[in-house]
Amino acid sequence: MSNIPLNIALVGNPNAGKTSVFNLLTGMNQKVGNFPGVTMDKVSGTFREDGTTANVIDLPGTYSIYPRSMDERVVFDVLSDQNASDFPDKIIVIADASNLERNLLLFTEIQDLGLPTILALSMLDVANKNGLNIDLRALEEEFDTNVLTINGRSGEGIPELRKKLCEELPSSDRLFYDINLLSPEIIPVIKEKFGLENDYIAYQYAQQTYSKSFLTNEEKAFIADKKVEYNFCDRQFQTIETVERYKVIRDKLSRIVTKTNLKSTSTKNLKIDRILTHKIYGYLIFFSILFILFQSIFAWAEPFMDYIDFGFAKLSAWAKLYLPAGVLTDLIAEGIIPGLGGVVIFIPQIALLFCFISILEESGYMARVVFLMDKIMRKFGLNGKSVVPLISGVACAIPAIMAARNIESWKDRIITIFVTPFMSCSARLPVYAILIALVIPNEYVFGFISVQGMTLMALYLIGFLGAIFSAMLMKKILKVKEQSYFIMELPIYRWPKWKNVWITIFSKSKTFVFEAGKIILAISIILWVLASYGPGEEFAQAEQKIRLEHPDLELESPEFEDLLSAHKLEYSYAGLLGKSIEPVIRPLGYDWKIGIALITSFAAREVFVGTIATIYSVGSDAEDESTIKDKLRAEINPTTGQPMYSIALGVSLMLFYAFAMQCMSTLAVVYRETKSWKWPLLQLVYMSTVAYVFAFVAYQLLK
Amino acid sequence: MRSVAQLKPGEKGIVNNFTNEYISLKLLEMGVLPGTEVEMKFAAPLGDPICIRVSGYDLSLRLEEAGTITLS
After folding, report:
1. The most confident of A370-379, A569-578, A629-638, by mean pLDDT
2. ipTM of the complex
3. pLDDT tens figures, A51-71
4. What is the pTM (predicted TM-score) of this model?
5. CA–CA separation, A121 vs A385, rounded Å?
6. SS3 for A432?
7. Mutate to test the interface with A, among B18, B25, B29, B48 (most CBs of A within 10 A)
8. Tens digits of per-residue pLDDT, A372-422?
9. What is the DSSP string of B4-52?
10. Closest C-alpha to A309, from A625, A653, A557, A663
11. Which of A495, A503, A351 shows the shortest CA–CA distance to A24?
12. CA–CA gap between residue A126 and residue A106 (Å, rounded)
């Protein structure tokens, strides 16, 4: 066996159990990378067998080689780019045995690409329960391939699959469906131009010219010209091809599959569906699940978040104490460590969110949620599939926006991405918490409904309404000719596979830490520099100044240090920025101090609390809420003589935080997902305007 | 001509043809082919989308799309 790693691509229909096979093959040896040229996550993993290292790429689930969504484009790209470093040597097609006909369509398309292909049958137990008997030997012969069976739950069949992958496999040159029947002229031309050997790949170059990421514009133009020259009709050819493939598959299957009775799982499924999509119970169950989800994200994650917060504060203090004093130590202790903490603190919430989402998806329930919500969402220019991003947005907009990828319609997807940041994410929670505690009386209506709790709920509702109404607005504005459709498989109900759930939690958290983490960390460092340096004498001579003003204070005493850092912040670059935007934010009731907090909030909204703490010289280590609250409560508005943090200011600030786009990481993700600066910029302008208007109206009315 | 959108829950029909080429491409891939039997199973609470059974599995689609599938 050679030392050159073996590249294996894993292909299959959605819900066919592809992820289970991938997880069983590679275990935790997985990593998430990027496909070149497209903004898709590439999930790959490795395993070793007989001294050979195999590198497995898990391709997005698809029903055919013709792409519909962003996800699906990747499949043909990877399978046809012979110059790529990870061009597969072998392909495994996972097929759901209980649904063989539709799964074999993809298999025959993949097989015609000419690479050695193995057919791995999953869910044979379900097929048998449904009364389907599959003659595996006949399947191998009729489809001219190697067939293996795999149990995604117990892992049976995985060792055999590994072994088979390391053997020499024959690749068949014979096409399952001879594509030359459709377009005999264009295939040789494309084959020659691109040095291709396989007829079906050449044909797909013509079918998928514009979604292929590795072709240059000139090459695309060449193919487009030839298509006109030879009268290549994409859709008509695709129709004929699909129908013909199914014809042969059905004919062959009649000699492979024997049916006895055709009931069990189907009737059991129908019974569950009767309840879960019932007009009353259906929504009731859905909202109960949502309620538990929110509860867990906020209540269960909190202790972990507190530990993380505490741990990073300790680490920061430790760094200050033990590292040699200097700029570098300050940067580490005040910039980098809190910046990292700001990333890590979201892991509990993200892990819990993805735990729920993957259980809901694995069990087949998520498809029913989409089914239940489609009609309602459509009214607002969204799609049933927008539900998942919107729900995820409550934890964090970043993974939520990435979850919009499986929406096939471009318009629906853009609208979903655009409005998702309106959902109140967990970073807003600390801001809401402190403002509510500050301005909303801790009283109860009817003795048990907390006014503060109601306010918090209202803020979440406002975020949701902001999303819905913005979607409606965009539906009106965006004029696209593209046809939106909703055709989705309702998979059978199954118990979630816990291994898959764990691996999802692990890999999503890891992606978040590394992808979003990089940006958050960078911004934290920039903000630290802005807040730690300033021009002019006021900043340079801050110490002398404080000493003059407060001769009674001991040097290096905590009070002195707090006053010093407050003074420094006021005259730092960040402070100057805050002052320079003061005229703009004054109508909202804000002063330059809040201005600084607004600016620093761009790294992450929850930075608001820390910044406010520093500005009011609460002291960097006394970040506990009651101290901050007392300080803020004592703050007097110089023009009115009333407390600065009045109801008007509090409500204005809360509304501002509810609507404003104050998250660099989200903007970066929107850019990555839409491949254009147009959308993140529009989002920034639009959301800030909405925030400004609402905050302005609220302040002026309540003042 | 009757379409899949007009089927009542529990009713079956045989697919004849499609009235929208773009949507038909997706439907064909999903195994909804002329000559295939489809059974209307149930509708979502608001009457739309619906769930049909076709070639051994459950497929959901909007009434709008179901209306493009004509029955023989």
Report:
1. A370-379
2. 0.94
3. 888 999 999 889 999 988 777
4. 0.82
5. 28
6. helix
7. B29
8. 999 999 888 888 889 989 988 887 888 788 888 878 788 889 999 999 999
9. GGGPPTT-EEEEEEES-HHHHHHHHHTT--TT-EEEEEEE-TTS-SEEE
10. A625
11. A503
12. 20
Q: Is A5 helix (H, G, I), strand (E, B) or coil?
A: coil
Residue A534 has pLDDT above 80, yes or no: yes
Cβ contacts from A onto B, under 8 A: 111
For residue A44, list its beta bridge partners.
A31, A57
Give the whole-angstrom CA distance, residue A683 versus residue A660.
9
What local confidence, expressed as pLDDT, does residue A627 receive? 63
Band (A446; pLDDT cuts 50, 70, 90): confident
Reply yes or no on whether the pLDDT at A586 is more than 70: yes
Confidence of residue A684 (pLDDT cuts 50, 70, 90): very high
DSSP A569-616: HHHSHHHHHHHHTHHHHGGGT--HHHHHHHHHTTT-TTHHHHHHHHHT
Residue A148 backbone phi and psi in degrees, to 5: -125, 150
From the list B33, B41, B59, the residue facing A246 with the nearest CB is B33
| Residue owning tokens 């264009």 | A186
- Flag if B53 and A266 touch (Cβ within 8 Å): yes
Q: Which two tokens stand for residue A630?
A: 């007392």
The 10 Å Cβ neighbour count of residue A162 is 18
* Partners of A31 in beta bridges: A44
Q: Mutate which of B21, B30, B53 to test chain A, going by most A C-beta atoms within 10 A?
A: B30
pLDDT at A316: 84
Inform me whether the C-beta atom of residue B28 falls under 8 Å from chain A C-beta atoms. Answer: yes
Distance of CA A114 to the CA centre of its chain: 34
Rounded Cα distance between A432 and A421, Å, is 16
End-to-end CA distance of chain A: 79
CB atoms within 10 A of CB A464: 17
Q: In sequence order, which ranges of A616-663 are alpha helices (DSSP H)?
A: 625-634, 647-659
Alpha carbon separation from A282 to A279, A390, B38, B41 (Å, rounded):
6, 19, 25, 16
List all residues 6 or more positions away from A411 whose beta carbon is below 8 Å from its beta carbon.
A381, A478, A480, A482, A484
pLDDT score of A467 more than 80: yes
Identity at A187, one-letter amino acid code:
I
- Asked if B56 is an interface residue toward chain A (Cβ–Cβ < 8 A), one would say yes
**How far is it, in rounded angstroms, from Cα A267 to Cα A486?**
24
Please name the residue of chain B whose CA is at the shortest distance from the CA of residue A493: B58
> CB under 8 Å to A378, separation ≥6 — which residues?
A384
